[in-house]
């Protein structure tokens, strides 16, 4: 049956599966995304090793997450400004170069303070790359925006899954090796992006630093962003506190645990999220997912001194994170009548604040006696995600109504984006 291009979000679920026949430019950027997202979970298996070898406390080590996420969030405000002036390709390449340099410098460091500083530079590179990569994939991929988002989330999931495993395998030899490994892989990504992504000169109007803040005046986008702050606190509590709650697990064991977690992130993002959304709608699906995530963190908080429960809880959380990542990203894309890069910058700036706060507070709660205070970080994560549930429940009607209202605009924009991509990107590669 033919479907009208104008339909509401509830009747337009995320399409299951992504077309396999994509331009080489899409695969080059997607591969680079995989490597970029390795940086999020890469340090998980080596957190305890770094703390032990560099005489650092858990909260000091957690600053490797905090500096990375904080700078990444602030830098999101300027990604649109930079991209609209030098073009997406140059912005992508600039971000890749920064990641290569700062990952290598982190691996060469001899103190936690130096690693924290270089992780901040790494976060700047990731911001320039990731925000522009999503917009580039959306513009150049064959198929709908929803399918492009699924492709992006799949790359995110694969990167998050493989990061801890690579970190674990390389970390068995030295805690420095994972940093150098990412730097080398990013050189490959840099070469692929340079050759396969055609020149993308600046198009449209030049955005300003004020645009993301103006976008947050739209209540649906603000509600989603505030929800994401508290959701990301729970997300990064899992990443930061999990390894310290498994004192008997070695580097490679933690790598495998977070590999399983990341596989669920990827699988659920691509396969399950479309089914859940089709069944109950975007906003109800996000709320249900956050409730389940809260329950998972609560179970981990109660039985935090049981490694088996913590291990199962970490892996299971990947399903909730994967489902929520895809659903909330699509909701953000239609939540405000602004350009997608501006909406993405505004949303990312706010949500990465949660990513910066979560690890530091969670591991600060461990104190100097993690065997005594092992429950506290997970209680903190559970309470934070539950606040996100309350925010979205209170604003569900506004978010749902605006998402449905904006769907016609999004569908028209999809057609224009696909036509432009065919002329500018895809046509050059066929």
Description:
This protein has 430 residues and is mostly helical. The chain contains 14 helices and no strands. The chain has one domain: MFS general substrate transporter like domains (Growth Hormone, Chain: A). Helix 1 packs antiparallel against helix 5, helix 3 packs antiparallel against helix 4 and helix 11 crosses helix 14. The protein is globular, with a radius of gyration of 20 Å.
List the helices and strands and how they pair.
Layout: H1 24-41, H2 47-53, H3 58-86, H4 88-107, H5 112-140, H6 145-171, H7 177-196, H8 211-215, H9 219-244, H10 251-280, H11 282-302, H12 307-333, H13 340-364, H14 376-429
Helix pairs in contact: 1-5, 1-6, 1-7, 2-3, 3-4, 3-5, 3-13, 4-5, 4-7, 5-6, 5-13, 6-7, 6-10, 6-12, 9-12, 9-13, 9-14, 10-11, 10-12, 11-12, 11-14, 13-14
Rg value: 20 Å
How far is it from the N-terminal to the C-terminal residue, by CA? Answer: 31 Å
Shape verdict: globular
- The level-1 CATH class: Mainly Alpha
Instruction: Based on the coordinates given, report the CATH architecture.
Output: Up-down Bundle
> What's the main sheet like?
none
Q: What value does the average pLDDT take?
A: 81
Domains counted in the coordinates: how many?
A: 1
Concise summary:
With 430 residues, the protein is mainly α.
Features:
430 residues; mainly alpha; Growth Hormone, Chain: A; 14 helices; 79% helix; globular; disordered N terminus; disordered C terminus
């Amino acid at each position: 049956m033919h479907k009208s291009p104008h339909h509401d979000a509830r009747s337009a679920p995320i399409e299951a599966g992504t077309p396999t026949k994509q331009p080489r430019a899409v695969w080059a950027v997607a591969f680079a995304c995989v490597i970029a997202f390795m940086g999020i979970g890469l340090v998980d298996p080596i957190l305890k090793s770094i703390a032990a070898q560099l005489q650092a406390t858990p909260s000091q080590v957690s600053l490797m997450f905090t500096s990375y996420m904080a700078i990444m969030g602030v830098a999101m405000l300027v990604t649109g400004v930079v991209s609209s002036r030098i073009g997406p390709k140059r912005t992508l390449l600039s971000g890749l170069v920064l990641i290569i340099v700062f990952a290598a410098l982190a691996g060469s460091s001899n103190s936690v303070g130096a690693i924290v500083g270089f992780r901040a530079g790494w976060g700047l590179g990731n911001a320039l790359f990731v925000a522009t990569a999503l917009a580039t994939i959306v513009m150049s991929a064959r198929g709908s925006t929803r399918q492009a988002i699924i492709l992006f989330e799949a790359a995110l999931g694969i990167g998050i899954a493989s990061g801890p495993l690579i970190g674990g395998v390389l970390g068995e030899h030295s805690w420095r090796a994972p940093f150098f490994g990412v730097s080398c892989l990013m050189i490959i990504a840099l070469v692929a992006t340079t050759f396969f992504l055609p020149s993308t000169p600046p198009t449209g109007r030049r955005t300003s630093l004020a645009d993301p803040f103006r976008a947050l005046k739209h209540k649906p986008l603000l509600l989603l962003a505030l929800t994401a702050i508290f959701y990301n606190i729970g997300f990064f509590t899992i990443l930061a506190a999990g390894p310290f709650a498994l004192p008997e697990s070695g580097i490679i064991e933690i790598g495998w645990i977070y590999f399983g977690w990341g596989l669920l992130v990827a699988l659920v993002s691509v396969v399950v999220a479309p089914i859940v959304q089709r069944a109950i709608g975007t906003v109800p699906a996000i709320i249900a997912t956050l409730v389940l995530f809260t329950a998972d963190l609560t179970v981990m908080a109660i039985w935090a001194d049981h490694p088996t429960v913590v291990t199962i809880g970490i892996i299971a959380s990947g399903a909730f994170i994967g489902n929520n990542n895809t659903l909330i990203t699509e909701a953000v894309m239609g939540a405000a009548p602004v350009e997608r890069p501006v909406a993405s910058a505004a949303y990312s700036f706010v949500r990465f604040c949660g990513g910066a706060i979560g690890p530091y507070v969670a591991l600060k709660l461990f104190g100097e006696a993690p065997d005594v205070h092992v429950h506290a970080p997970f209680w903190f994560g559970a309470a934070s995600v539950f606040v996100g549930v309350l925010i979205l429940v209170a604003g569900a009607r506004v978010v749902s109504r605006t998402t449905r209202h904006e769907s016609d605009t999004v569908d028209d924009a999809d057609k224009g984006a696909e036509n432009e991509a065919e002329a500018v990107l895809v046509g050059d590669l066929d």
